[in-house]
Design goal:
binds zinc ion; three-stranded antiparallel beta sheet; single chain; 8 strands; 2 helices; mainly beta; 2 domains; OB fold (Dihydrolipoamide Acetyltransferase, E2P)
């Protein structure tokens, strides 16, 4: 329990709903919330299932592979800790749920809708996070 609390404090963006996600990243695992009643995956985490309205949920590890569903390239203003331009993508994981993450491990001319990608785990300062690279 003490370890979980410490990891929560390291994850500056965390809240109770997100704790399992950031704790997974600390262990280089991509965890996604699922409904305990109908099994629907959902991200970002929510307190209630949008499909069956159950409030029971768990976390399931994803393979970390998928394809670029959409993306944008951020040019301005500068973001502290990031090189510009900074590409961000919506990745559709092979399990069927979509997640927003940086694509900054890829060259801009590699980034396109439908390109297969794989999660890469890294730290940005104190925060464990992920980005996607070409698979
Ligand atoms: Zn459900």
């Amino acid at each position: 329990m003490a370890e979980i609390t410490e990891k929560r404090h390291k994850a500056a963006c965390s809240s109770r709903d997100y704790d399992f996600f950031y704790e997974g990243l600390e262990d280089q695992r991509l965890m996604v919330q699922h409904c305990s009643d109908c099994n629907t995956l959902r991200h970002p985490p929510e307190p209630m299932c949008p499909h069956c309205h159950s409030v029971h949920s768990g976390a399931r590890e994803m393979a970390g592979t998928g394809t670029i569903y959409s993306y944008a390239v951020h040019y301005h203003p500068p973001l502290p800790g990031f090189e510009m331009p900074h590409p961000i993508g919506i990745v559709e994981l092979d399990e069927g749920v979509r997640i927003v993450a940086g694509l900054d491990g890829m060259a801009l001319d590699e980034i396109a809708i439908g390109v297969p990608v794989k999660a890469e785990y890294l730290r940005r300062g104190e925060l464990a996070t992920l980005r996607f690279r070409r698979a």
